[in-house]
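Protocol step 4 of 6: record predicted structures for both targets in the notebook before any analysis. Target 1:
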Amino acid sequence: MTTQPSDMPTTLRGQLVDDLPPAQDKLHANSLGLPHAIIISVAVMSPAASVFFNTVPQGAAVGAAIPLCYLVGFVISLLVANSYSEFSREIPSSGSSYTFITQGIGPRFGFMSAWVGLLAVTLGVPYTFIGLASNLQFILRTSFGFNVHWSFYFILLLGIAFAICYSGIRQSLNVDFTFLAVEIGVCLLLVIIVLLSVGQHGGLTAAPFTLDAIPSGGQGFTFNLITGVILGVLSYIGFETAASLGSETRNAHRNIPIAVFGSMVIVGVFYLLMVYTETVGYGIDKIAPDFASNSGIAPFHVISQHFSPWLTIFVDLVGVFSFFSAGIAILNGSARILFTVAREGLLPGFLGYLHPTRRTPVGAVTALCLGGGVIGLIIGFLIQPTNAFAFFATLDALSVIIIYALVCVGTFFFFRRQGRGHFKLVRHAVMPFGATFI
C-alpha cells in the first residue's frame, strides 16, 4: 500500500514540504467539527437550485413521478456514498477522490483521476456562477425592472466568493450555513402552505411514488423512467465534498463518514418534500404536457404565485442564491483537492501554497476563481449564458460520474488488500460494484 498523500514530502517552489514552517505546511488540523463537514456537502448539492431547475426536464419525461425518481436516485446515490464513507473512515484526506483512487487502484489511476478531477473542479466554478448571474439578471429585470448585464453579476459575485473563501474555511462555512438556513426555511414554508391547502381539498395522494404516474409517450416508458432517475441522481452530486475536509475535521475517521451520509439524508428528505409539493401543487395531470411544451417554465414560481403570492419573490431569490452558497462550497472543496494534488507534484507548485496565518489554500482558490472566471465569461459570451450553463453542467456531471465509478472500484481493491478482518462483502464489494454497474 502506498503512503498517504498527506504524509508524502513533495516539493513546493524548490523546498521540501517537511522543511517549511508548520503554519505554511499544513491545513489547520482539528479546526472543524461534524456540522461544518455536513454544511459543505449540503451547500454543494444546492438543494433549492437542484429541485427548481432539474425537475423541469425530469417532469417532461416522467410526469408526476418526479418523487419516485428522486427516491430511486437517493438509493443509488447511497451506494456511491458508501464508498466515500468507507474510505474516509480509513484514510481521511483533503485529497478526497484523488487520494481514495490512488490508494485503491494505484498511482496511474490516481494520476488520471487528478486530471479528470481538475476538469470537474474547473468547470464547477463557471457552471455555478453563470447559473447564478444569468438567473439573478432575469429576476431583477422581470420583478424590479433593474436590468444589468449578467457578466456584471458574474464578476461581482465571484469576487465576493473569493474574498469569503480567502478569509478562512470557518468563515466560509458560516456564510454557507446562513444562506442554507434561509434557503431551506423559505422552501419549507412554501411546502407547509401548499400541502395544507391541497390537503384541505383532498388533493394529497401517493400517486407520484408509483410507476403508473409515468407517461408512456415520447421515447417510451423505459426511456422516460431512466431519464428521470438519472436527473434524480445528478441532484445528489456533491455529497462527497465533506471528504475534502478530512485534514481539518476533528475525529475525521468518525465525523467525515457521518457527514457524507448525514448530508445525503438531510438533502434527500428536503428533495422528497419539495418535489412532492411540486407535483400535487402544480397538478398531477398538468406536469408532463406543460413541462414538455415549455422548457423555460418555473414551476415553483407558478406554485408560489398561486398559493402564496407574497412569498414568490423570496422563493425566486433563494432558488438563485442557492448557486451562491454552492459556489463558495465548491471553491473550498475543490481548492483542497487541488492543494493536495499539487503537494504530490502532479500540478504546479503555486496551487499548494497556503496562507501563512489563515492556513487556507489561497493559491488554489485564486487559480479556481481566475480560471473559472475567464472560462465562464468567454463561453458565456460565445454561446449565451443559458447554453453555457447547460454545457458546463453536462461536462461537469460526466467528469464526476467517472470519478465516482473509480472510487467505487477502488473500494473493493483497497479493502480486499487489508485482509479478511477489514473486508466486508456487502460494503466493499456488493454496494461499490452495484453503484458502478448502475
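Target 2:
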Amino acid sequence: MQQHYVLTIWDLFTMSGSDVCGGEAVIAIMDGDQEVDRVTISGKCQSPSGYRRSYTGKPGLNCLASTSEQSA
C-alpha cells in the first residue's frame, strides 16, 4: 500500500549581500529513526503559498530538513 504526501517548502533562498539567490533544501524521508530516502529541492521560492512537491511512499513516513545550502 502506498500513500501520497505533499512536501511544502517556504522561503527557499539565500542572500548574497543585497542579492537574493537560489537555495537548496535536502529533505530526509524517515521511517521511524531510519532514513529511507532523500529529496533535494533547488531554486528560489518566496511565494506566500510555498513550493509543493509530491512524494509517494509507505504510510507513516515523516520528514526532516537535513541541510540548506546556497546554489551556484
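Step 5 preliminary note on target 2. Residues 3-58 form one domain. The chain has a mean pLDDT of 90.
Proceed to step 6 after PI sign-off.
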